[in-house]
Each structure stands twice: as structure tokens, then as C-alpha cells.
Amino acid sequence: xxxxxxxxxxxxxxxxxxxxxxxxxxxxxxxxxxxxxxxxxxxxxxxxxxxxxxxxxxxxxxxxxxxxxxxxxxxxxxxxxxxxxxxxxxxxxxxxxxxxxxxxxxxxxxxxxxxx
Length: 116
Fold this sequence. Notes:
Keywords: DNA recombination, DNA-binding. The chain is built from three helices and four strands. It is an alpha/beta fold and 116 residues long. The longest helix has 19 residues, at 22-40. It is globular, with a radius of gyration of 14 Å. The mean pLDDT is 87.
């Protein structure tokens, strides 16, 4: 009997449209997350990106779409380059983490952020 393939959604974000090479920054985040998924045998079901949005509150346009997706589809992981892509506020991050846990979703970062 084969192992069950885990399913994930991928989220990328850059805070400023003025950031040099925005599309490159998003692509690097995405590639790093895809590499982690491949390494762990995780299937990426969908991906979401926010560009030019400061994520202090944690509920940006595509992040809200991601949350809606998770409520409708069985997802095991949320892949992010780092936890601060979700929110730079520790309180908001914890709130979102708890919300995701209610749906059985674990946040899986490529790199560990020392703040969150």
C-alpha cells in the first residue's frame, strides 16, 4: 500500500511594488517552496501571491482567497518562504496559525524567521 500524498497551497508576498525585481522576488520564493514540496513529497494544489501589500494585519487580497480555498478543500500544509510572508506581527501570525490549525493546516516555511 502506497503512502498518502500530502497536499499544500503555496503563498508568496512582497511588501512593495517599488521593490526591485518584484516578479523575480516572487519567483524565487515560489521556486524555494516548490523545492521544499518536492523534497518532502508534497503536492502543491494551488498558489497565491500578493504584491505591494504590507501584511501587518495578515488578511491581504490573495491571502483571503487562500483562506477561502482552505475552507473548501482538504489541505495539509501552507508553504511559505518564511513565516513573515504571512504577517510581520507576531500576534497576527499566531491568530492566523490558530485559524489554519482548525482546518488541519500546518504552516511549512522554507526558512525559519527568528521573530515569529
